[in-house]
Every structure is written in structure tokens, then in C-alpha cells.
Specification:
The chain is of the alpha+beta class and 263 residues long. Helix content is 34%, strand content 12%.
Length: 263
């Protein structure tokens, strides 16, 4: 009985000492929590996608509180979150322009010709690292193995008929799909963009048409009819400057390949 009682006393004393040490350490190493940071963090969605350019929502909250990031820095939360954060910071939220991912390839299975058969890991990066790794003959087109799909946290992109397609309703422009695409076919554009060039091939004229019926042939006719200098050639493919585009549609009307399209 004495042994049991002694054991209980020893355990109690150890617990008392350890507890005292923990309390002392907590006081010594205590870090003051900025209430503003905590309040901002509470408003953020918690996806930790990194689209804001900071290491997760905690990083963005700290940056906003320090005045290093705008109150509308969360692309996932968009305007509703920006309004809440702006209220905490006591500033105007401004207007958050909705942006979405866009896949610059329309080389679906019925438009793009095949040149090989790929046996290997069904991953775009893996296929791109192998010579002839993609069945499609165009070396600039969508590989169709869905690396972008796996990277998206929001179920906003899927491979349809051999080509990645973005669901604009779900896309939050986090940019993960753009990083996952080894051929850099996905870019972030304003959701208000009306006309887009759905091709990135750098091949010339006949070479493009021999590989895909949905390719830019580099004729430059679109650049000549644009009244606002909003479209130029990027090598052998047209590129629209969305900040200048007035959605007149003249480039789409003139395009003989019909790869400039209204969204």
C-alpha cells in the first residue's frame, strides 16, 4: 500500500514540475498574435492554393495586415472576401476582376492527326519527356493526359475528347493548371474576354494544316483588320491583348482557319 501511495505522490510531483515548466516556457516564448491578422485569416477560404503569391492563407493574411498585399489578394474568395477584409482594414475593397484559366488548344481527337502510339505513365509531364510521347502529331498541342486535372483543387478542368477544357463557373484562376501543363498551353485571362486564339502552334502555314485542322496558319490577316491594335503575332501564332480588345469580332470574321473564337 505504501509503495502505491509513494508512486502516486511521485507521479503527482513530476506532473506538477512539468506543468510549471510548461507554463514558464509558454510565458517566456509567448508570441503576441495580431488580432487583425487573425480576423483576416478567418475571412479567407483556407484553400492554401498559393494563387495569391504567398505561402498559403496564413501568409496572405499577415501580408495584408502589414500592408504588403492588397485586400483583394485572394483570388479564390474574390469580391465577397475582399469586401470583408477591406472592412477589417478600414479601406475600400476596390473591384476584383474575375479571371479564369483558358486552354490555348482546340486540337480535339477529330481535328488533330495522330503520329504515334504512347505506352507509358498517363501524365503530361511524363509523355512530354519522351520523343513521340503524345499520339497527336502537333508538338505544341494539348497532350490530353490530364496533369492539369490532377492539379486543380476545384474540379474546374477536365479532358474532353482529348483536349483540356475549363469550366469557367468553377475556375478561380489559382494558376495550378498553368504550372502543371508542360507545354504552357494554359493561361489566365479576364473572364470578360470575348475573343480568344485557341492555338499555340509555332509551325508555319501548310505544316500546321497537315497536322491539325484547328491550327493558326500565321497569315496575319487578323492583325491587319483590328481597329485597336489588340492582336499581334507571337512568332507564327496570333495573340490577343485583352486589355486592348474591344470585342468587335473583326479578327474572328477574317480568320481563314477559324481559330479566333467568341467565348
Amino acid at each position: 500500500m505504501k509503495i502505491i501511495l509513494l508512486t502516486v505522490i511521485v507521479v503527482a510531483l513530476v506532473a506538477l514540475v512539468v506543468g510549471s515548466l510548461l507554463v514558464t516556457a509558454s510565458n517566456v516564448f509567448h508570441v503576441e498574435v495580431d488580432e487583425k491578422v487573425a480576423a483576416i485569416r478567418e475571412c479567407l477560404p483556407g484553400n492554401n492554393c498559393g494563387a495569391c503569391g504567398y505561402p498559403g492563407c496564413d501568409g496572405l493574411a499577415a501580408a495584408i495586415a502589414a500592408g504588403e498585399a492588397p485586400v483583394n489578394g485572394c483570388v479564390v474568395g474574390a469580391q465577397p472576401v475582399a469586401n470583408k477584409v477591406a472592412e477589417i482594414m478600414g479601406v475600400d475593397a476596390g473591384e476584383s476582376l474575375k479571371r479564369v484559366a483558358f486552354v490555348r488548344c482546340d486540337g480535339t481527337c477529330d481535328k488533330a492527326k495522330n503520329s504515334s502510339i504512347y505506352y507509358g505513365i498517363e501524365d503530361c509531364a511524363s509523355a512530354a519527356s519522351v520523343a513521340g510521347g503524345a499520339p497527336k502529331a502537333c508538338k505544341f498541342g494539348c497532350l490530353g493526359y490530364g496533369s492539369c486535372v490532377k492539379a486543380c483543387q476545384f474540379d474546374a478542368i477536365h479532358v474532353v475528347n482529348g483536349t483540356a477544357v475549363v469550366d469557367r463557373r468553377k475556375c478561380v484562376a489559382c494558376g495550378k493548371c498553368t504550372q502543371a501543363c508542360p507545354r504552357h498551353l494554359i493561361e489566365i485571362i479576364p473572364d470578360t474576354a470575348r475573343y480568344v486564339v485557341q492555338c499555340r502552334s509555332q509551325d508555319k502555314g501548310k505544316a500546321v494544316k497537315d497536322l491539325c485542322s484547328a491550327g493558326c496558319i500565321g497569315c496575319t490577316l487578323c492583325t491587319k483588320v483590328c481597329p485597336n491594335d489588340a492582336i499581334h503575332m507571337d512568332g507564327n501564332v496570333a495573340q490577343i491583348d485583352q486589355s486592348k480588345c474591344i470585342a468587335c469580332g473583326k479578327c474572328a470574321e477574317k480568320c481563314p482557319a477559324k481559330i479566333i473564337r467568341m467565348r
